[in-house]
Design goal:
Elements lengths: L7 H10 L30 E2 L4 E2 L20 E11 L6 E12 L3 E12 L5 E12 L11 E8 L6 E13 L2 E12 L6 E14 L3 E13 L8 E12 L5 E10 L7 E10 L1
Antiparallel strand pairs: 1-2, 3-4, 3-14, 4-5, 5-6, 6-7, 7-8, 8-9, 9-10, 10-11, 11-12, 12-13, 13-14
Amino acid sequence: MLAQIANPADKQRQADERKTSEPSGTTSATVENVVIEGVRTPFHEEQRIGSYAQPRWTAFRRFPSTRVYVRPEGYFGVEQWFRFEDPQDGETGVTGETEMEFGLPNRFQLDLYLITRREGGTGPTYVDNAVELRYAFADWGVLWGNPTLYAEWVSQDAESNKVELKLLLGDELSPGWHWGSNLVWEYTMGGDKTRELELTLGLSHTLRDDRLSIGLEAKLAQADQAANRGDWERDLRIGPSLQFRPLPQMHIDIAPLFGITHESKRADIFTVVGWEF
């Protein structure tokens, strides 16, 4: 049965009336759902939880290449990333990321990263760190697409620092169908002063509630440098995605994306393992 959404003003008032923090250490999979008049769903993962009345599936990553909304207030999670990039020329790049996610009050989220990068099997290893802050404009369902601002600062070893800004969008199409999209601007502060614009898209379908979903992801990027502004290199990657949750507090995401244009990377493979505390 399709979800029926009540008047947004009524929904906002109900959200304000019930805003109480969940007990510390409660995970999104086990916390009691928030009952909202007019919202019905057959899926446990789509029940509303937390201060912002968001679906359970938004409390953890759904798409490796696309972010959606913020984590619930009081949430803490850790993710370990592995990314393999196979360019048209040069050696395969291997990136590992350890990410800590903190759900803060007032629809904020703070993420901290430790990143290692290496080209090829014998190349040098570089260690970076990054900090990210998100802010959602409203409780879930009040605004179309649940818009969220994302800002990230990356301090790179042996390379210039980067800044990245994103607009995060996402929602439910119908029970069991979820989507996300990001508009991205990234700028390298020094060196060749690379500027990159991206559009990412993610679509997932639940095969087994709280356990297994499959989907499709795509990333369209174009980049130029200070020496040739306006001479864009375009990169389109697309591929399947899968999320498996062997335990209520654990998720495993895999998304192998493959290049479509002659300027695209041949392959860009994401693997993410996450755990809620």
